[in-house]
TrEMBL record:
Keyword Transmembrane helix in record: yes
Family: Belongs to the binding-protein-dependent transport system permease family.
PROSITE patterns documented for this protein: ABC_TM1 (PS50928)
InterPro entries linked to this entry: MetI-like (IPR000515), MetI-like_sf (IPR035906)
Protein name: Binding-protein-dependent transport systems inner membrane component
Localization per Swiss-Prot or TrEMBL: Cell inner membrane; Cell membrane
Residue stretches spanning the membrane: 20-43, 81-103, 115-138, 150-170, 203-231, 251-274, 301-324, 361-382, 402-421, 433-455, 484-512, 532-555
Phylogenetic classification of the source organism: Bacteria, Bacillati, Actinomycetota, Actinomycetes, Micrococcales
Main location, first listed in the record: membrane
GO cellular component: plasma membrane
Listed Gene3D superfamilies: MetI-like (1.10.3720.10)
Keywords, in A-Z order: Cell inner membrane, Cell membrane, Membrane, Transmembrane, Transmembrane helix, Transport
UniProt keyword Cell inner membrane, yes or no: yes
Membrane topology, record value: Multi-pass membrane protein
Species whose genome carries this gene: Nostocoides australiense Ben110
Length: 566
C-alpha cells in the first residue's frame, strides 16, 4: 500500500499538489474581493439605507415618507428621469449610424476615429461640463443661443458622454453579423431599407437594448455634468443628495433620496443584465467580423453625414472651444491661465493646482493597483467552467455582485463612506487610503468587464490539452491563462486609471481641503467669480483631458484581439 501511494503523491506534486489545496486557493481568490466589496460597498450602502428609514422621532420609514411626499422630491425625480430619457434617446439615435459607419464599414483612419470617439466616455464629467460651459456660456461662441444652464445644454453633454457606449456596444455586434441573410433578402428584391428593417435591425435589437439601458443608467446617475451645467434650475437626485449632505447637513433626507436613486438604478441594472444575456446568446450565432464592407458614398452617405455632424459638432467642438479659450484672455492669446496652475489662483484654492494634479495621479495609481488586483482575482474565478450546475450558478452570482457598484451612484458610495467609516473600529477619516478605496470600488466593474471577456475567450480544450500532457493546475494557469490575462491587463489598467483620474462623485464628499484632487479643484474654480478663476479651470480641464486621453490611447493600443464588453 505504501509502495502504491508514493507514486500517487509524487504525481500529485508534479501536477501542482493535492486538489484540496487548489480548491482552497480558488475559494481564497473569491473571498478576498468579496470581503473588500462587503466592507467598502455593501456595509456603507446598507448603513445609508438604514439611515433613510429612521426619522428624528425614531419612527420607521419616517424620513423616507417625509422625503417622498415632498413636492420638491417629485420635481427632482421628474427632472432626473426627463434628462435620462432625453439623453438616452438622442444618444441611441445618433449612435446607431455611428456604429454602422465605424464598425460595419472599412475606410482609411477608422481605427483612429474609433479611439477618438471612445475618449469622451472616460473623460471626467466635470471636464465635460466645463467644455460645454465654455461653448454655450455667455462669452462662448454659441452663447447667443441662450442655452447656459438649460435643458439642451445638459442633454448635449450627456450625449457627448454616452455616444461611444452606443457606438461600441452596437458596433461590436454589427461588424460580426453574417451578411448572407441580408444578401438573401436583397436577392428576393427587398430594398436596402426593407432589408435593414426586416433582417439587420432584429439582429441588432439585443445590442441596442443593452446600450439603451446602459446609457439610461449613466444619464440617470450623471453628477458632475448637472452640477456644472444645471445651475439652480435643474437638480437631479444626485445633486440633491450632495446639497442635502454638504449644505443643509440633513443626512436622513439625503439617505432617503439615495434609496430612491438605488431603486431607479437597480431597475436599470436589472434591465442591463437581462439585455446583456440576450446579446451574449445572439453573439454565439454570428460570424467573425464577416459583415464589413468598403465605404461607398452612394450607400453610406446618410450615416456619414450624421456621424460627421455628431463627431464634429457634439464631440470635437466643445473640446476645441475649451482648449482655445484656455489660451486667451481679454487681451488676446496668452499662457497666463496655465502659469496660474502653479499658484493658488488668487487665494481661491488652499493649494496650487499642480499639487492637486499630483494628488490625482498618486490617488489614481493607488486606486488602479487595488482595482487591478481585485479585478484579476474576480475574473480568474468567474472565468472557470465548472461542470457542477450549482457551482456555475455561484459564479454567475459572484459576477453579478461585482457589477453592483456600476449600478450604484458614486455619490451614494461617497456618502456611505462619510457616515460609516468615521468611527472605530474602522475610522478612516484621516487616512490617505479613503479616496483610493472609493475610486477602486467605482473602477472595479470596468476592470472585470475588461479582463473577463479575454479569459472567457480561451478555448477550454487548451487547458484540457495542457493537463493531458502532464501540466499541473499551477502550470496550466501560468501558461494558458497567463498570456491572455496579461493581454487584458493593459486595457483594464487604462479604464481604471482614467476612471480614477476623473472621479468626482465620491471624491467630492471625501477630499480634504489640503489634499484635493484635480476634478474637485476644477469645480471649486468654476464656483468662484472672475475671469482668472474660470481661465484656470479651463487650463486645468485641458490638462486633465490630456492625461485621460493619453491613458486611454495607450490602453487602446494594448487592447487584445478578443472582444471586450466595454
Amino acid at each position: 500500500m505504501t509502495t502504491s501511494t508514493a507514486p500517487a503523491r509524487a504525481d500529485r506534486r508534479a501536477r501542482g499538489g493535492p486538489s484540496w489545496v487548489w480548491r482552497c486557493g480558488w475559494l481564497l481568490a473569491a473571498a478576498i474581493p468579496l470581503a473588500f466589496l462587503a466592507l467598502f460597498f455593501a456595509w456603507p450602502v446598507a448603513t445609508l439605507v438604514g439611515r433613510g428609514f429612521a426619522s428624528e422621532d425614531g419612527s420607521t420609514l419616517g424620513a423616507v415618507v417625509e422625503v417622498l411626499t415632498s413636492a420638491r422630491t417629485w420635481r427632482i425625480l421628474r427632472t432626473t428621469l426627463t434628462l435620462a430619457v432625453l439623453g438616452t434617446v438622442v444618444s441611441v439615435a445618433l449612435g446607431v449610424p455611428g456604429a454602422y459607419l465605424l464598425y460595419a464599414v472599412r475606410f482609411p483612419g477608422r481605427g483612429l476615429l474609433r479611439a477618438l470617439v471612445t475618449v469622451p466616455f472616460v473623460l471626467p464629467s466635470v471636464v465635460v461640463g466645463v467644455a460645454f460651459l465654455s461653448l454655450l456660456g455667455t462669452n462662448g461662441p454659441l452663447g447667443f443661443l441662450g442655452w447656459e444652464e438649460s435643458l439642451p445644454a445638459i442633454v448635449a453633454a450627456l450625449v457627448f458622454f454616452n455616444y461611444s457606449v452606443v457606438v461600441r456596444t452596437v458596433g461590436g455586434l454589427w461588424s460580426r453579423l453574417d451578411p448572407r441573410a441580408v444578401e438573401a433578402a436583397r436577392a428576393l428584391e427587398a430594398s436596402p431599407s426593407r432589408a435593414f428593417r426586416t433582417v439587420t435591425l432584429p439582429a441588432l435589437l439585443p445590442a441596442i437594448a443593452s446600450a439603451t439601458t446602459l446609457v439610461f443608467l449613466f444619464c440617470a446617475s450623471a453628477f458632475g455634468i448637472v452640477m456644472v451645467l444645471g445651475g439652480v434650475r435643474y437638480s437631479t437626485i444626485e445633486t440633491e443628495i450632495w446639497y442635502q449632505t454638504t449644505q443643509l447637513l440633513d443626512l436622513p433626507a439625503a439617505a432617503a433620496l439615495s434609496i430612491t436613486q438605488l431603486v431607479v438604478v437597480t431597475l436599470a441594472l436589472l434591465a442591463t443584465s437581462w439585455t446583456s444575456a440576450r446579446q451574449e446568446r445572439a453573439l454565439r450565432l454570428r460570424g467573425d467580423a464577416s459583415g464589413e464592407h468598403t465605404w461607398s458614398w452612394r450607400r453610406d452617405w446618410a450615416a456619414t453625414l450624421v456621424t460627421g455632424a455628431t463627431v464634429l459638432g457634439v464631440l470635437a467642438l466643445p473640446m476645441a472651444t475649451m482648449l482655445l479659450r484656455s489660451l486667451r484672455d481679454r487681451e488676446g492669446w496668452t499662457l497666463d491661465h496655465y502659469r496660474a496652475l502653479g499658484t493658488t489662483v488668487g487665494r481661491s484654492l488652499p493649494v496650487p493646482v499642480w499639487t492637486a494634479i499630483r494628488n490625482s495621479l498618486v490617488v489614481a495609481l493607488e486606486a488602479t493597483a487595488i482595482a487591478l488586483v481585485l479585478g484579476t482575482l474576480v475574473s480568474l474565478v468567474v472565468s472557470r467552467r465548472p461542470r457542477d450546475p450549482l457551482a456555475r450558478k455561484g459564479l454567475r452570482a459572484l459576477d453579478a455582485a461585482f457589477m453592483l457598484p456600476l449600478g450604484v451612484s458614486a455619490v451614494t458610495v461617497g456618502f456611505g463612506f462619510l457616515i460609516t467609516l468615521n468611527r472605530p473600529p474602522l475610522d478612516l477619516r484621516s487616512s490617505m487610503l479613503l479616496i483610493p478605496v472609493a475610486q477602486a470600488i467605482v473602477a472595479l466593474p470596468l476592470v472585470v468587464r475588461s479582463i473577463l471577456p479575454v479569459l472567457r475567450a480561451i478555448d477550454p480544450r487548451q487547458r484540457e490539452a495542457a493537463a493531458t500532457l502532464g501540466a499541473g493546475p499551477g502550470r496550466v494557469l501560468r501558461t494558458v491563462d497567463g498570456p491572455f490575462l496579461v493581454r487584458g491587463l493593459g486595457l483594464a489598467a487604462g479604464f481604471a486609471m482614467a476612471t480614477s483620474l476623473g472621479e468626482f462623485g465620491a471624491t467630492s464628499f471625501l477630499a480634504r481641503l489640503d489634499r484635493p484632487t484635480l476634478p474637485v479643484v476644477i469645480f471649486r474654480l468654476i464656483g468662484r467669480p472672475g475671469e482668472a478663476n474660470f481661465g484656470a479651470a479651463l487650463a486645468a480641464s485641458v490638462v486633465l483631458t490630456t492625461l485621460t486621453a493619453v491613458v486611454m490611447l495607450l490602453a487602446e493600443r494594448l487592447r487584445p484581439a478578443e472582444a471586450s464588453e466595454l
